[in-house]
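Reminder: ligand-aware prediction takes two inputs, not one.
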Amino acid sequence: MKLSICLVGEDSLALASLKQELEKDVAFQVEPRVYSYGEALEGLRNKTGPVIAVVDLNRDMERAFGIAEDIKLKFSNVRLIMTSPSSTPETILRAMRSGAEEFLAQPFNWSEVRKSFDAIRKKIDAHAVRGIDRGHIVAISSNKGGVGSTTVAANLAASLVAQRKSVCLVDLVLQFGSVTSFLNIDASYTILDLVKNLKRIDPLFLDGSLVKHVSGIRVLAEPFYAEDARRITPADIDEILDLLAQSFDFVVVDTPKEFDDMLALVLDKANLILFVTEMDVPSLKSAHRAFELFERMGIYDKKIRLILNRYVKSKLMTLESVEKALGAKVFWTLPNNYPVAIAAVNQGLSIQECDPRSDIARGYSGLTQAVLSTFTLPGAPKAAIDEKSGILGRWMPARGLTK
Ligand SMILES: Nc1ncnc2c1ncn2[C@@H]1O[C@H](COP(=O)(O)OP(=O)(O)OP(=O)(O)O)[C@@H](O)[C@H]1O
Ligand SMILES: [Mg+2]
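Here is what comes back for the chain with magnesium ion:
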């Protein structure tokens, strides 16, 4: 079968020449017209099977990166190549972060172009042989203790399973992870066993390394001993997340609060980041610092979603004021319900299993639907509300809109 190629860019002579060159190869089916940035998502929506999209950054780099991120987020069948006359390390790094698997410098070196397409074709063939579609990696992040990230990770994972998705919950809080105690499961193997055997992992080995929770979630546990965390490198995590994403619809990752190379890698790699915070001033201050850090790191803000946990309506601090202060739209609020949250943990159950009629169980159902929609529905989230920032304005300068 011919491999579909879509070209995306505006008034690009480079893409016109690329099109001519690729059309000479009978293995490729090049889309007759070049999509403008605005048309790309719609154009790719109806494509089934593997597609290579080539995005030219020529006209508007920021917009092109945005489109590329959207493509990666929404279409797991599309593989990205980016091209630009500017091939500075910053541009290439940014392209890779936006999901590009190859970068083509302009003017084109045709033998390099061929190598890039061949490399992607090989990956697609390997994928087809295994019959696997890549799953989504959802990182649960927060930078303040106790705001609820493990609760969100465990309960999102359970709700996704209830929606018939296969889910692996990974505890990357390597030193003092708590997913196994939240779910009251005993692990025989941990992430360290996977790391030690990375070269010989097959589906059977992978399955044996995961613990099954009654809800159906598979869990990859933290090492038994905190000191073993040091034996696991970001490169190991990179490989493990790839492996899991090939085997599960969703890989939900509970991440540590401290920022380091491993967290940077996970946030970079994630298709979606759910950033969890609470609605008190210290938590929001911490969240603000995290958002600034994400911006400095160049983490694409369209993949970050803000979750307000233990949300209680208050006239002093409204949702709008939080959005204004953080420069980010609130994606979801989860109600404060300590009795149900703690009863679930104490029984090793998900909140849904523990009390399906509670407000917090409904909150998690809604969050799960919203997450699922993120990967299927068109359109980016709306811009933040522009209102007076009230109580929060005293300590936070309003940032630019981030979504
Ligand atoms: N919406 C909620 N309402 C009430 N209590 C909650 C809610 N979400 C979580 N909790 C409770 O808050 C406590 C902290 O939650 P959790 O351990 O998930 O936070 P964390 O951010 O992972 O903490 P840590 O810093 O230890 O990793 C737990 O006892 C949990 O049951
Ligand atoms: Mg935790």
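The two ends are 39 Å apart (CA to CA). The chain has two domains: 3-130, 136-394. We will return to this case in the review session.
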